[in-house]
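Hi R.,

Here's the chain you asked about this morning:
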Amino acid sequence: MKKKITYFVNDISFFKNHFLPVALRAAEQFKVSIISDKVDLELENQYPELKQYSISIKRSSVNPFSDFLLFFGLRKLLNQIKPDLIHNITIKPILYGSLFSKFSNRKIKTINSVTGLGYAITNNHLLIKTIMKSLIRIFVSKESYFLFLNRHDKKFYEDLGKVTIQNFKIIGGSGVDEKEFPFTKPLKKGKIEIVYTGRILKDKGVIDLIKAMKLLDDESKKDVVLKLYGTIDIKNPTHIKEEELKSQLIRGFIKWEGFTSEVKRILESADIYCLPSYREGLPKSSIEAMAIGRPIITTNAPGCEDTVQDGYNGYKIEAGDVEALSKKLNELIKNKQLRIQMGENSRKLFLRNFTLEKVISQIVESYNSVLSITC
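And the predicted structure, written out as C-alpha cells:
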C-alpha cells in the first residue's frame, strides 16, 4: 500500500509556483494531498491525483482566535486524511502542522520547508519576534526534518535547538527547468534593459533600485531602461503604495509594467537582472534569470548571496547601499562583453546548483529517508 504525503501550505498559488513539480514526482510513489487556503479548480482538473482540501488560513494574521480555529480545522482534516508524512511549507504551516504531529496518537513524520523566516521574525518588533521564537520552541519537535534554502535560516532554527547534524538538508530553492528556461543570447534592441521581477516591496529593494537608476551618469541614462514587473502586495507590511511607486516613474527610463505571466519572455529581453533585496529564502526570480543567461546584481543578504559569485556571474552589494548599486549598474551598462560573459557564467552556475531535477531529487530522497526511519 502506498504511503501518504500531505502538503500543508498557506497559499495554493505559492505551492503551484514552487512545489507542484515535486508533488507530481512524489505522486508517482505516494498518495499525495494538499491542504491550503483554497481548492484550485484548474489544478484539480489537470492533476486529479493531487487531492486538495481547503482550510481558513491567513498568512499575515497574528490573531490567536483565528489561529485556534485553524489548528482545530487542520486536526479534523489530518485525522480524515491520515498521512504518514506532513510536508509543512512556510512558517504558519510549520507551527501548526508540527503541533498536530507532535500530539497525534499516530506516528506521523514531519518535514518543514523553511522558504524564508517571514516578516514576523525578521522585523524589528521585539515582542512579536520573541513570541514567534517561543512558538517554534514549543510547537516544533526535534524529530522534525528540515529543508532550508540558505545557511542563515538553518542557523536561526539551530539556535532554537531544532537542528541537529542529521535532520536537515540545504537545497537549491524550488529549482528551475533547464529546458523550459534555456540559455538565450541577449536580443538586439534600442536600449539596454534592466529587469526586476517580484512583488513591489520595500524589502525587495525596489525603492533602492529606482534611486540607483537616478544616480546613473548621463551617458548611461541615455542607453538604458528599468522595467519593474510585479504586483503590490498590500498584505505585506513593507508594501509600496501605488501612488508612491507611480510618483517615482520616469517615462522611457523607469517603468512599472505590473504583473506578468511571461517571465521567460521578459528575461529573454533583459540584459541585466537586478534584485537588491534585504532578505530571501533563495530567490527563484534570480535563478530563472541565471538559467536564461543574464548577469545578476543582487545583495549579500541571506538567500540573495547564494545566487552570485561576485565578479563571476554578477555583483553583490550591501543591502540598502544605493550608491554601490548604481556603480555596479554603470559598469555593466557600459561593458557589453562583460554582460555577455557574466551571463554565460550564470548559466553554468545554474546548471551546477539550481536545476529543477536536482531539487526534486533532493526532496523526494528526503521523503524516502524520513519515512524509512522507525520511531
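The chain has 16 helices and 13 strands.

Let me know if you need anything else.
M.
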